[in-house]
């Protein structure tokens, strides 16, 4: 694990230097150089894909399980997560090397993220490499890539859906299909499909109400309120069965996972909400409807996250809101004639990476 971490940090440092250079180009020279930045983004994601895909069995909490599933692919029982099961069987029939399957998952995860960034860059003019680098700056990126891989690929499909929505909101099939494929990797993406679909359908609801809901539920969560108050409705909420609800309610696997109000996560989400609100008001002047839809999703998913604080592994619900942070930061990596946001934003992201790397190593 230590060797893997050192390699990951080495890749990060090398590309951080390049990110600093590009941020200066955006702020000082007022140029994106996206032909070069796109090529470097490809190199970045290939490097990360190889690192994630060729990891040893002891790297990542789910790696052993994925290896076991791959070795016994002929016993797979197709269910909601049909796409993952299909890929498992397909690769299993071609090779018996589980690293090949890990590589397929890794390239799919990173490839979908890169494709999403590229599609979004056609709609919002920003530096492609800086947004790509933003993803690996957040600790959840590594977590999704090696620990909870199925959810990682599923959320990458969600990013593809978002970019296609920005490209053409009226083409519903183009962004709904990736969400359905995401469900085929991890069933919890059904919650995203429902939530994002409702926000788009009810897009005339003023964003003010989302702010009210956000802070109201945040206070309720701080006082001990949670999804557990729904009782037996959890069976339907988790879209699985009563055993899944039982697992979340009673922590039936007896793992030592701290539940309760997560102050650090509440602060983290709220800080970024403040940044996004600044972007929406001062940079976009409330004039980008697609951005406001995504901001509404961020707040709505954060509300769901806050209600999950009392159940084990609540951070996996947090990732459903965190995954859109780089996209919501995108206007800060755009050319602004009167302000310089790129260098400061990049410095903040590097600080976040260093802080959480130290925090996770000592906790």
Descriptive keywords:
single chain, 363 residues, mainly alpha
What does this structure look like?
The protein is mostly helical. It is built from 18 helices and no strands.
Give me the secondary-structure topology.
Elements: H1 2-29, H2 34-53, H3 63-71, H4 82-94, H5 98-121, H6 128-137, H7 139-146, H8 149-167, H9 172-183, H10 189-201, H11 207-222, H12 234-237, H13 242-250, H14 263-283, H15 289-307, H16 315-322, H17 325-329, H18 342-362
Q: Please mark out the parts with pLDDT under 50 across 5 or more consecutive residues, or reply none.
A: 239-243
Which oligomeric form is depicted? single chain
Radius of gyration: 20 Å
Our count of helices gives 18
Instruction: Write down the overall mean pLDDT.
Output: 88
Brief digest:
This protein has 363 residues and is mainly alpha-helical.
